[in-house]
Design goal:
single chain; about 250 residues; alpha+beta; 3 domains; 3-stranded antiparallel β-sheet
C-alpha cells in the first residue's frame, strides 16, 4: 500500500528518522466552492427606448405639450381586457406579452385616448406583418384609435399635430361615458316597461349587466346597471332610463 495514500503511516516513518511533521502537512487541499446562484440576477437596461423611439418621443412631447401624457412601451394587457376570461384564456395570452410603443392619455385622469406604433423596416417581415394585423384587430375590436407612423430621420410637427387632432375628434374611446352610451343606444325593449328581472347587455363589452345601487355621490340611493367587468369596464345605464326605453 502506498504511504502517500495513508498519512498516518508516513508520519510514523518520519518520526522514526527524527522528523516531526506538522498536522497541516497532511490536510487535503479543498476545492473552491461555487458561489450560490444570484437570486436576483437583474440589471438596469440601457436601451429602454431605442434611438428611433427616443427621437420620436421628443418630437411627440413637443407636439402634445402638457395637454396629453405619453406612456412608452405599455403592455396590451394593461390597456385591454378580455370578455368571458374563462372561455377566452388564449385570447388573453395573445396580448399579455405584446406592447404598444406609445399610449397617450389625458393628464389628469390618465384615461387612454389613443396609441402610436412606430413602424421601421422590420415591420415588412412576414412575421411582423402577422403580428401587426393581430394588433390592429385588437384595437379595432375595442374601438380604440391606433396611429401607425413610419420611422423617419425627421418628422413634420405640423402634420403630426393635425393627425393627432383628427384622431381625438374621430376617436371612440369615450364609449364608457354615460352620454356616449345614450348616443350609441341600448337594446330596445319595446314600448312597454321592462320587467325588473330583465337586464341590458353592456354596450361596450357585451356582458349582461348587474343591477346596483349608488352608495355615494349625487346619485346616492339610485339604481343603475353596471358592467360586471368593473373597474376594467365602467359602462353604466341608469335603471329608470332602461325601464322606460322605447
Amino acid at each position: 500500500m502506498s504511504t502517500s495514500s495513508n498519512p498516518g503511516c508516513l508520519a510514523a516513518i518520519m518520526r522514526l528518522f527524527g522528523m516531526h511533521p506538522s498536522r497541516s502537512s497532511f490536510v487535503a487541499t479543498e476545492l473552491p466552492v461555487d458561489p450560490e446562484p444570484d437570486q436576483h440576477p437583474y440589471r438596469l437596461r440601457d436601451d429602454f427606448l431605442s434611438p428611433a423611439e427616443q427621437s420620436f418621443y421628443l418630437v411627440l412631447k413637443n407636439v402634445v405639450g402638457e395637454y396629453l401624457t405619453i406612456c412608452p412601451k405599455v403592455s396590451l394587457a394593461d390597456v385591454f381586457f378580455v370578455t368571458h376570461p374563462n372561455e377566452n384564456m388564449s385570447a388573453y395570452n395573445r396580448i399579455n406579452r405584446k406592447h404598444v410603443d406609445f399610449l397617450v392619455c389625458e393628464p389628469k385622469t390618465m384615461k387612454p385616448r389613443f396609441a402610436i406604433e412606430l413602424d421601421d423596416s422590420s415591420h415588412k417581415r412576414s412575421d411582423r406583418e402577422e403580428r401587426d394585423d393581430f394588433v390592429d384587430g385588437v384595437f379595432n375590436g375595442a374601438s380604440f384609435p391606433l396611429i401607425r407612423i413610419p420611422v423617419r430621420t425627421g418628422y413634420n410637427t405640423v402634420e403630426l399635430s393635425a393627425l393627432i387632432k383628427q384622431t381625438l375628434q374621430d376617436g371612440t374611446s369615450g364609449l364608457q361615458d354615460q352620454q356616449s352610451i345614450r348616443d350609441v343606444g341600448v337594446p330596445s325593449p319595446g314600448p312597454q316597461e321592462q320587467s325588473p328581472d330583465s337586464r341590458p347587455f353592456c354596450p361596450k363589452c357585451g356582458e349582461q349587466m348587474v343591477l346596483r345601487i349608488a352608495r355615494q355621490g349625487a346619485q346616492t340611493g339610485k339604481r343603475f346597471f353596471g358592467c360586471p367587468n368593473y373597474p376594467k369596464c365602467r359602462a353604466v345605464i341608469p335603471f329608470e332610463e332602461w325601464m322606460h326605453t322605447g
